[in-house]
Write a structure and sequence with these properties.
six-stranded antiparallel beta barrel, single chain, Elongation Factor Tu (Ef-tu), domain 3, binds zinc ion, 60s Ribosomal Protein L30, Chain: A, 3 domains, alpha+beta
Amino acid sequence: MELEEIGVVRNNFEETQSPDLMRDSESVLQIYPDYEDGLYEIETNDFLQVLFYLHLSDGYELVAPRRHGEDRGVFASRSPHRPSSVGATVVELIERNGNKLKVRGLDAVNGTPVIDIKPYADPFDSSSLDEDELKRNPREKVRKLTSRGDTEGLLLEAGQLHGHFCPFLSLGVVAAQFAVSELGESAPDMEEAIAIVETNSCFSDGIQYVTGCTFGNNALIYRDYGKTAFTLACRGGDGIRLYFSEENFLEEEYPEARQLFEKVVEERNGTEEEEKRLKRNWREIGFDLVTKPAKDLFDIERIDTPNLPDYAPIYEDEYCDSCGEKFMAPKGVEKNGQCLCRNCASEGYLQLDGSGLKEIND
Ligand SMILES: [Zn+2]
Ligand SMILES: [Zn+2]
């Protein structure tokens, strides 16, 4: 068996510290000149697996009390005392500077010999690290993709919400990524962001995914204008509105998709083969559109004082005298001395559906 020392760890730890402290700290992996070429394109990875030689450890026990006092086998623990003195950590790659990799989360002390580095690849290496990170901040992945301007990565994720890839989902992703990164600099806190969408087409799913402003968290406002436009605003700050102006742009740029769309969607008259082709076409256009700069696709304007509603109120509960179901008090109706839900009172109500917002009286 042959192992090579390819570099060395540089950080402020002369001895092992608590895992939490080490997880939050930065280290530099200094790679030796003979191996530097092996770092080519390593920056394209957010996370790396680092294998290192536990040079301070000697001896081991196959079963011993571990960190929390309970007995564990050595292979069921992260103990540094092992038959093969190899340590492994998944770290976040912060930056590469020549032969130096600045990383966060390495649990190795200063002077530890590095023996290997590999990219941390999702399907193979999914571990509790990502889960832990996502438990702390469920939007971390979106935030990273957005700040990197990785619109293709965002589209891949947004597709999971939307169910397919299409031109207007992509337009939503591009618009939202642009607005978030523009506003991010001046916004006091993106947690306070509100998105105002003017359509409930595919476009709005791109907006919801990237901004994190959704129907459920009350940070999404719907204005029933039927325009491919949206505004991102921050409470106490300014806003930015993007409007997709070039109505004919998609038809001119992608004529085949237009014809297919007419036949398959508008006339509901396409063959199975044409349906498949449209899907493929849409996907291709979708991934093409996210490579275009927002400025080429949208009219963009700054809005100094956006008109925003108050925080979502907390309503009291009320019970319907007829069906017994609970509802938010202000939604109820007084009728013949009874307190009724809108359904039992046969009152009109507002419904948001494929045709927009409309009043239903039935
Ligand atoms: Zn769509
Ligand atoms: Zn009722």
